[in-house]
């Protein structure tokens, strides 16, 4: 597949600093060429990894960043399930990103209204794009092959009109969420998966090397005009037979 790189690190310890360098280097490029850097974040273990590594970057300047969320749970921000809440406490409160540059949901709304409201915020933030084009999306993958809140065999996999969709029957709790759809994910200039741990190995093999039957949601991420990166550790890569790149600490993408 053109434009896909699969990069394997010994452990997540070596992966983390390389991810931080990817973010900051793409930020610098975007600010220099377009005046701002647009970043889409996912939750899970990515929160603590990003916070640790970005806060270790000397002179980190986030004043021209605009941050959105690939998906979000419709819960109050002080709920431990809130991705925004976790990033707020671990990262946003410690960097110089403007509050109005963080595109957060309105959790007081019903799930459908919440998705419409968030869609409106994205459109306002990307007034020149029919579909928002993020400079970098950081994605995760569940052991079932889902990404964002796009789950296997769910009707939202075929959504082509909405840029943000509600989901009220998530197979993974909490059930009510809003999620970017594939048109937005695949419009990104760069989509980067971060996948670590041996529990991901079986599904990662099927996502990257193919499977019988419908592809997993994570396998449907193919940026139309952008890059696709997979940053994984050796335990997650254990079942792969394909050719991959292997990098250690201090590497740069």
UniProtKB/TrEMBL annotation:
InterPro entries: 6-phosphogluconolactonase_DevB, 6PGL, Glc/Gal-6P_isomerase, NagB/RpiA_transferase-like
A Pfam short name: Glucosamine_iso
Catalysed conversion reaction: 6-phospho-D-glucono-1,5-lactone + H2O = 6-phospho-D-gluconate + H(+)
Domain Glucosamine/galactosamine-6-phosphate isomerase span(s) in chain numbering: 14-230
GO molecular function terms noted in the UniProt entry: 6-phosphogluconolactonase activity
SUPFAM superfamilies: NagB/RpiA/CoA transferase-like (SSF100950)
UniProt superkingdom: Eukaryota
PANTHER family registered for this protein in UniProt: 6-PHOSPHOGLUCONOLACTONASE (PTHR11054:SF0)
NCBIfam families linked: pgl (TIGR01198)
Protein name according to UniProt: 6-phosphogluconolactonase
Lineage, broadest ranks: Eukaryota, Metazoa, Chordata, Craniata, Vertebrata
């Amino acid at each position: 597949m053109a434009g896909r790189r699969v990069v394997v690190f010994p452990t997540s310890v070596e992966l983390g600093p390389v991810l931080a360098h990817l973010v900051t280097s793409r930020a610098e490029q975007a600010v220099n060429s377009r005046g701002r850097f647009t970043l889409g974040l996912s939750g899970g273990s990515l929160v603590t990894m990003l916070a640790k590594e970005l806060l270790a970057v000397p002179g980190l300047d986030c004043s021209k960043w605009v941050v959105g969320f690939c998906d979000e749970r419709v819960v109050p921000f002080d709920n431990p399930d809130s991705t925004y809440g976790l990033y707020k406490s671990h990262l946003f409160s410690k960097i110089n990103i403007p509050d109005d540059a963080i595109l957060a949901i309105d959790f007081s709304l019903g799930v459908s209204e919440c998705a419409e409201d968030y869609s409106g915020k994205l459109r306002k933030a990307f007034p020149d794009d029919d579909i928002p084009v993020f400079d970098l999306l950081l994605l995760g993958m569940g052991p079932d092959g889902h990404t964002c809140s796009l789950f296997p065999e769910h009707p939202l996999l075929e959504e082509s009109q909405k840029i943000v969709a509600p989901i009220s029957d998530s197979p993974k709790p909490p059930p009510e969420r809003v999620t970017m759809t594939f048109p937005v994910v695949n419009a990104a200039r760069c989509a980067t998966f971060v996948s670590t741990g041996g529990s991901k190995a079986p599904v990662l093999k099927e996502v990257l090397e193919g499977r019988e039957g419908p592809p997993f949601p994570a396998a449907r991420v193919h940026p139309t005009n952008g890059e696709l990166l997979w940053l994984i550790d050796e335990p997650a890569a254990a079942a792969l037979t394909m050719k991959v790149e292997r990098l250690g600490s201090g590497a740069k993408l």
